[in-house]
Amino acid sequence: MKTSEGIAEPLLVYDNHRFGYIDCEGDDITGLRFPMAKPFSEGLAAVLLPTRGEYAWGYIDVLGNVVIAPLYSSARDFRDGIAVVQLGKNVRAIDSRGNCLNLEVQNMLDFSEGFAPVKLGDFWGYASKEGTIVISPRFEQAWGFSDGFAHVRQGQKWGYIDTSGEHVISPEFDAALGFSEGLAPVDLGGKWGFIRTDGTTAIQFRYDNVSGSSFREGLAAVAVNDRWGYVNQSGSDAISFRFDYCGPFSEGLAAVCSVGLSGYIDHDGKYIIEPSFSFASEFCQGVALVSRGSKWSYIGADGKTIWQART
C-alpha cells in the first residue's frame, strides 16, 4: 500500500522479541523498539508505547514519529480514514488526527465505503463517518460495505442491503461474503456459488468452500473435495484443483499450499516461486512476508530475500 502522498508504506518486522519497520528495500526505518506493533494502513501504524509507567496503543507515521498519543488499550488499523480503538471500557472511533467521533456504541467493525457496522443493544446497524446512525440496528449480524452492498443476517439467513439500508437481495442464504469484482460467494444448502448484484446466480452452487477474498484479478479460489483451485467469472475452471489451499491473487501472484509447503503461482497456474515456505502472505508493494519454520523474511516477486530475521 501507499500513502495519499504516494509514499510506499513501511513493512512490519519482528526479530529478537521486538517489532520495528523497514522500507521495501530492506533498510531500517524505526529500529526494533516496539513490544507490539501492527502493519501500516493509510499511512499510520498502531504501536504499543510507554506512558506513565504503563503501555498503551498509539499511532506513528511513515517516518516513525508518534502522531497520535498512546491512550488506548487496543487499536485497529485505519480504514476509510477512521480507526476503531478501545478507550477504557468504551469502543471509540478516531480520525487520523486522533479526534473522536461523537459515537457511543457497544461494538463497532471497521469503516468501509463511508459506513461502519455498529452494535446497539442486541442488534447491528450502520454509522456514518460523521458519527450518525444512518441505518437503524435491526440485524443479528452485519458486515462492511463492498461494491455498494453489505451482507447482513436476519434470523438464520443472509442477504444484502444497499447504503439506504434496504434489502436489495433478500435474506435466503445460509452464509454470505462480500462482493468483489461484481460477484459475491454465497452458501445455499451446504454448497457455495456466486451471485451478481441483482441476486441472480452467476456461478452454480457446486463448491465445498471458497476463499474469503472472493474474486481478485478475475479469479476466485474455491474447493471441491478438499482440493483447491481457481475459477473465472464465467464459472469455468481456470487453474486445476490440485492444491491443499489457495490464497487470493495480488500483483499477479497467488500463494498456494501443497504437501505442507507454500509457493507462488501466476494466472496460468505455473509456479513462479517454488513451494518452500511454511507460511506465505499475499504480495503488496512488490514484497511478501514468508517464513521457513520460525524464521520470518520478506521476499520480492523474483523470490529473492530482501530482509530476514536473525533469530
Molecular structure report:
The structure is a single chain. By secondary structure, the chain is an all-beta fold. The chain is 0% helix and 56% strand. The protein is built from no helices and 32 strands. The chain has a 4-stranded antiparallel β-sheet with strand order 9-10-11-12, with no helix packed on it. It has a 4-stranded antiparallel β-sheet with strand order 13-14-15-16, with no helix packed on it. Strand 14 and strand 15 (157-161) form a beta hairpin. The relative contact order is 0.08.
Provide a short characterization of the protein structure.
Helix content is 0%, strand content 56%.
Overview features:
311 residues, mainly beta, 4-stranded antiparallel beta sheet, flat
Percentage of residues in helical conformation: under 10%
* Strand arrangement, major sheet: 9-10-11-12
Query: pLDDT below 50 for ≥5 consecutive residues: which ranges?
Result: none
| Number of continuous helical runs | 0
Bin the strand percentage: over 45%
Mean pLDDT: 95
Radius of gyration: 21 Å
Oligomeric state as shown: single chain
The number of distinct β-strands equals 32
Question: Main sheet, how many strands, which sense, barrel?
Answer: 4 strands, antiparallel
Distance between the termini: 27 Å
* Structural class designation: mainly beta
Overall body shape: flat
